[in-house]
Amino acid sequence: MAITITAFEQSPDGGKGLARDTRVRWALEEAGLPYQVRLVSFRAMKEPAHLALHPFGQIPTYEEGDLALFETGAIVLHIAERHAGLLPTAADARARAIAWMFAAVNSVEPPILEFANAKLLEGDKPWHAERLPLVADRVRSRLSQLAARLGDAEWLDGAFCAGDLMMVSVLLRLRASGILDDYPNLAAYVARGEARPAYKRAFAAQLAVNKPPAG
Predict the structure, then answer these.
(1) Helices marked H in 11-121
(2) How many Cβ atoms sit within 10 Å of the Cβ of residue 35?
(3) What is the value of pTM for the model shown?
(4) Of 81, 136, 198, 213, which residue has the fewest beta carbons closer than 10 angstroms?
(5) Chain segment 179-195, per-residue pLDDT in tens
(6) What's the CATH number where 147 sits?
(7) Within 13 Å of residue 177, how many CA atoms lie on the same side as its CB?
(8) At a CB cut-off of 8 Å and minimum separation 6, what does 1 contact?
(9) Omega into 60 within 30° of 0, i.e. cis?
(10) pLDDT (tens digit per residue) in 45-79
(11) 78 in the same domain as 16
(12) 165 touches 86 (CB < 8 A)
């Protein structure tokens, strides 16, 4: 059955790969699955047709036959469980890979998003100058823990898996801040993820939607 995902008609990041549809595109590319993309405007995201797919009016969504999913972690897990290459076959290793998927979105991403929102949305607040370093410290605390666990390993738990896909996607949000540069092994880890052919295809597809027309 054909797979259709939704993505921003015009992404807020301008095609830098930070929109969450990139994670789903990447998983589909790793699995070698063809897919279609339905572009959605900000207005359409809040209309009944899209809300029937995503109750919170966001992207991406995933449709395959009668199945409709939302939330990138759930979508990537669905893809990984049904197609080789994103989850180990051994039961214990598979469970650890899924644990890293949860860690990416539950333990690492929240302080990163809080930091991004503090920078982008709270700059005019009188308490901004005092709050921003506190939020940055929360990010650094998580990165220190993750860097210690990764050590000099190539991936989080043996071969590349869906846990790495989700973790790299989350860490990419820090690139513009420069914080990631303070953790060389994490910066190298992210670079390895970006170097994967499947990621390059996913990034190029998302950029093509947002790239301004020539001339």
Answers:
(1) 21-31, 42-45, 48-51, 72-82, 91-103, 109-121
(2) 19
(3) 0.93
(4) 213
(5) 999 999 999 999 999 99
(6) 1.20.1050.10
(7) 24
(8) 64, 65
(9) yes
(10) 999 999 999 999 999 999 999 999 999 999 999 99
(11) yes
(12) yes
